[in-house]
Every structure is written in structure tokens, then in C-alpha cells.
């Protein structure tokens, strides 16, 4: 198609315009008259028309299935996909997370630190409507130490609760520091260590708990900033305690649509031990606060004697926890962001084919909670979905699917449920519409792994406050690692894999943090993603050398870099001071 | 996985906010234009993942600017202008894509629901050649030609999208057709 020469260039533009009908009547007449007598220009017309036909005949391809979800997530997070996410400026868009961070940080500043008017912590200035901060009417208990025994904490059978505002997030770029709002510690002389809640920005201790059972390894702040829930190891028993500490007063919101603040009989500075559970399973370690009310903390505990696992709710309004399932195989997923009068919780039932059920819990009237079978009269159910973890907007979910088996512990007792084959985490749209709740367009997260008989046993997963980033660590794989002879094992239990839901690449081995980020022979105890979406706060712990060895953990701030550029690692707290620092928590969405 | 929609929602338990007109309008825009915008961008950049990213950003920007859309504005031109500018920004940042290779072009791996493997192979081959020809064009020529021949826009509509005068579009389109004719010839399309 070299085409005819153009002997009459003055007519070429008319020929081109004629193809789309862009000629005036006068131009049309003039061109027609010329074409009648010019074979060369008729050739140009035919050639241009061929070209137009060829372009018009290009295949029309379907849009990627996840495009809608990516757009919705981008609208809500205020983020674009134009640049690779690790190259974008370190800003967040103050929506729900930003205002909650402000509330939590300011509460810590005003209530706990002796009423100091100076804001501390990672409070994010934001033009978003922010609830009025309440100054405590009670004396501020700096390093208050008070433990309230669990209302019904029999050994091995403990207790627990909560979701997120429906306001339209507004993209407001606000530079944000990556430091956490709070972090925990277990410090002091070897034989007399105490728990401490520290301000994330200043490192100052704000609450001390002399009764802490052992080092903490998981923590979540409630959405209203009043509570931090956490898990602590119990000596060498292989169990952990579930605890909540009240760290702030309720605030009065400017927004009339905001939920009533939850008042509680538990005073600021007090800790409630909710119970003790068999430890070692990431699926039991899920701590889920309901939002936006923050009334409930949902958690699961495994009875050390029977091996039964059930869900519990801590109700902040009464300061107590109650068992809410009685099937012995129930695990906690996530709360829906806004149940509109109810708190809606995904509960998962472990079985050969795990299934999740959506159940409602009252947000207002003080109704007694009685144990149920999650499968009884659910609002919705999803077969093949285990422990759905929703992002902050509730539009994305990460869940597990695969074959599970009930297994025994080393001493012969039953020790809960595990995935045994073909299991892996999936990313899906979580669609919540007036008539239905469902998971859609699911896709395996790890794109460069082949899962068949081999698969994951478990892994720990966390979403970032931006609702887009997520991290996976402690990935336990049942088969032979899928890596070359001289390559690092993959998947690697000792690495953190870090990606975002809107990244079409999913998760691959290339998205692991640098091997050198974690000190050699230490393990990863906890991971949180900063609101910047570019930083991880990682608790790394040294394995105990013996019963007389003091637990030690450092809190690291890791800025992820790609390519040849190494990650930037800053020690926020620790570095061989033989204390335990971590885990961290952000704004408690 | 069995989707859970078959369990009836309990309306007394859950209340939903009233439908937001902005959301309804945006939903309509996305429904009508997401596929054509994606395909237009795909032909601009010849990379499925990049096209998805650019389309994603186009609709995020459109959502933010929805208030600026007036009755006097052509919705289609407005949306294509955002898409075009977003694609141009992307290409500038990347200093333009390299021509598509002979093996496994990203877009060719996208699902195609047409029946018949042979037909698909032939179509892919033809598609690749046309796509390679398009990539030989200067970006503004490619935009202009795609808007005209793929999107079937008039010169007036293209002028709105590219923010050029009507006369400038006609000149540009004529040059683009000449350039495309040579590029197609280089790909073996003879007349």
C-alpha cells in the first residue's frame, strides 16, 4: 500500500475529510467534479478508504474484569495508577483513615499526656470534618496501671467485637509521616517486665501495664481511638492472651451522621484480659474492630484442651467479652464498613470446604449475645471463602480457599484446623448492594506460584489504611519451594510480600522486601502498612535461645525500594537493647 | 465458589443511603464508555496493562471533574479528552513505547471471545500488523486517526477532544492518513 502519488495535493485534504463526511456541500461538489476526471486522486481515495476500513476493523477487546473495582478504589483512595505505586509522592488522601488518625492521635495527646495541648503522634491535619476532640474530665493517668480481670476468663475459653463510615472520601493530599500512632513494648528488668503502650511519634510511654503476661505480637487500634487490642505470649505455654487497653476518651463528633461515641465502664489506662487461647495459628490472631462505632472487637480463641475454636466479641459499652459461636470451628473475618444500625461480621467455619457467613450484631440496644452456629439464618453465605479480610472501604477482600483438615498437636490433642492442600489467598471484589452481598472476580494473589496439591498452610495478611496496599508475611508453604537452584526460597516464610489491590501484576516474588531488611536468623512477628502506602512497620524478633533468654524484638520502619536500590530501614525502637518493641498500630480503622 | 446472593437480604437490619445522583451519572458514564475508552487507549499505547492503568486514571479524573461537565459539553468528547491527555502524559513519561515485538505482544494475550482458534490466530496476526503500523505514526497522528477511524468521530468532535481548530484537525488527519498509508505498506498491506 505505497499508494498512488498525489498529483493534486490541494485535493488530498478534501479526500481525507470526505471519508468521515466532513465536507461542506460546496467542497463535496468540488471534490466530486475533480475525482470524475482524475484517476490518481481516485486512487488516493481508495487507498485512504482502505486504511480507514483496516483501522475500523481492529479487534475490540473486553476491558479487564477488575477495572471497575480499580476505579472505585482509586476514587476512594484518591490515588491514580499513572505511576508505579512505589514511585508516587508520599502523600495520603485524608478520608476515613486520616480523620481517624487525627482523632486517635489527638486523643492520645489531650487525654493521656496530661492534657497537653500540643498534638503528638501521627495526627494528620486534614480539612475533612473531624470530630471535636474531647478533653478528659478525669485526671489523665500517665502510665496508669490497672488491670481488670476478665469477666469470665476461664483458661482456654476467652471472649470479644466491630466497621466504617459511609461518607464520601475526598481526595485531599496531606503529607503524612510513616510512624505508627502507637506501638507496644515489653520492657524492664528480665524478671520484672511490664507492658507499655507508647506514642508512635515521640516514643514516650503513655500507659504501663505491670501485669502483662509476655511480649505482645499483634495489635489493632479501635476506629474511635479509645482502645488498643493486642495479643501477648504467655511464657512457654504455647498460648496467648487477648487483651484490650483503653487509651482514650470518647469524642463528640461534629458530623451529625457520625455514630454515637461509645462510653465504657472501663477507665482510660485500664486493661481487660479477655481470655487465653492456643497460639501459633495466624487465622486465630485476627483482631477486628467494628467501624464506625468501634463498639465491638471480634476475635477467636482456641481452647487448649478441646482444640475447639470459636468467635468472641468484646463489647466496649459494657467492658465485657462474650462467646458468640459454639460450633468449635468458627473463625473471625471482617466487619462490613457500615451496617446501618447493625454491625455485620463475616464469620468463617473451618471444614473440608470452608464457608463464610455474614451475621448481624446490634449496634445500639444492649442485647445479650448468645452463642450461635454461624450457619444459622445468616444474612449471606459464601462457600469456598475462609476468613475474608476487607479493606477499609469494604470493596476489596482477601480470603482463603482450599482443603482444610482438623489436625492434632504434638501431644496428641486436637489443635484446630489447617489448610492441607491446594490452598492460597485470593483477592476479590466485595460487593455490597441493597439486595445482596457477594465476592466477585476473584483471582489468586500470587501470580507466579503454581498451587495444586502443594499450597499454603497459612500466612498473615494485613491491609494498609489506604485500602489499596496489602502485605503478606509468615507464608507457610506445604510443598517444595518454587525457586531455582541458586535462588532464594519462594514463597519465603521470612519475607514480607507487599503489593496493592489495584496493581494488575498481583503479587510476585519480585515484590518481597529485601532479604537484608530482617536481621539474620530473626523472625517477623508483625507487619503494619503506613498511611503513606510506601512504608512498612515491622516487628522483628530474635528466637529465644533458652528459657532464661529474654525475649527481644525491634521495631523497624522499612521504606520499600525496587530494582537495584535497597530498601531503607530505620530502627524505630530497639536495636539490641534486649527489650521487646512492637507491634505497632495505626488509627484502628 | 457459590456467590452468596441467594440468601435474602434482611431489609429491617440494614439501611442504605439514598442513591447519589453523582454516583448514578458516573455509573452511566463508566458503563457506556469504559470499553471504547479502553480500546482507544490500548491502540494508542499497545500495552494492555498500561491501557488499563490509563483507563483507570481517566475515569478517576472524570469522577473528580464531573461537576465541570455541563449540558453544553459533549460528554463523549470530554471523556476522550481526558483519556487522550492521560495517555499523552503516560507516553511522555515513558518517552513513548517501543514498537511491539513479534512475540507475545501484551495486548494480543488479552481474552478474545471470538470462536475458532484459527480465526483468532489470523485475527491476531492482522491485528498485530495494524498495531505495528499505528505505532509508526507520530502520537498526535495516531490519536487523530484512531478518533476518526476507530471511534468514528467527526472532525468537529476530534477538534474538541484534541483542543485544536476544525481546520487544524482536517490537516492533521490528512497527514495522518498519508503516514498510515506508508506504515501499512511497510506491513505488507498492498493496494
Radius of gyration of chain B: 20 Å
* Share of residues in helices of chain A: 10-25%
Report the β-strand fraction of chain B as a percent range. under 5%
Oligomer category: heterodimer
Query: How many alpha or pi helices of chain B?
Result: 7
What does this entry look like structurally?
- The complex is a heterodimer of chains A (589) and B (191).
- Residues 82-175 of chain A have low confidence and may be disordered.
- In chain A, the strands form 8 sheets. Chain A has a 5-stranded mixed sheet, with no helix packed on it.
- In chain A, strand 21 (414-432) and strand 22 (437-444) form a beta hairpin.
- The N and C termini of chain A lie far apart (62 Å).
- With 589 residues, chain A is mostly beta strands.
- Helix content of chain A is 12%, strand content 35%.
- By secondary structure, chain B is mainly alpha-helical.
- Chain B is built from 7 helices and no strands.
- Chain B has helices spanning 21-45, 48-64, 75-94, 117-136, 139-150, 155-162, 166-186.
- In chain B, helix 2 crosses helix 3 (75-94) and helix 3 packs across helix 6 (155-162).
- The longest helix of chain B is centred in the first third of the chain and has 25 residues, at 21-45.
- Chain B is globular and about 55 Å long.
- Classes of the chains: A mainly beta (589), B mainly alpha (191).
- Chains A and B meet through helix 1, helix 3, helix 4, strand 18 and strand 22 of A and helix 1, helix 2, helix 3, helix 4 and helix 5 of B.
